[in-house]
Amino acid sequence: AQKVTQAQTEISVVEKEDVTLDCVYETRDTTYYLFWYKQPPSGELVFLIRRNSFDEQNEISGRYSWNFQKSTSSFNFTITASQVVDSAVYFCALSEGDSGTYKYIFGTGTRLKVLA
Amino acid sequence: GAGVSQSPRYKVAKRGQDVALRCDPISGHVSLFWYQQALGQGPEFLTYFQNEAQLDKSGLPSDRFFAERPEGSVSTLKIQRTQQEDSAVYLCASSFTSGTAHEQYFGPGTRLTVT
Asked: Which residues of chain B are within 8 Å of residue A107 when distances are taken between CB atoms?
């Protein structure tokens, strides 16, 4: 069955620390897509990254980086030199190629608190 | 351009009342999704439209929930005879096309409180 697990419910770090948010997924499909979204206190989900199952290259975008490992079914997200503005709930999501609709299956989210 | 908009942003309904939640997707977006987000949880899929066709309603929790997108743009999620367990944030998202998992753009949500 398809599932996304974000085991870390809440993480607190001090500004400028690095932090990694874990995401583990389960799927039987060979074609699937993984996403990370940020949900700040305002509530609107903000798209961060999309990765398909055939592309295991890691990606870096400014202070953000993502590590996709099919062998461990993980798609982890690292924020380098965290800032207070990074405080939010972060969601990992899975979209399966065979579903036809490409609906998202979300994890339960990780709340990140960055303290000044 | 404008993002996804939803109205109302907040809705308080007495148990048993009907409510209608509106979503205006990004212009030209083919795919439209509704999700329900309970407090402290991740969003859960409700239903999916490709243009005006409702292709997947497997996530609708009961026959009290009904969604439509008659002209392939604006969508309405209707909940009849609301119950307390319907209290949640209802999120609408749109995506440029169908046929692959493009990123979805989310609206700010409608927070429904059933008293």
From this structure: 42
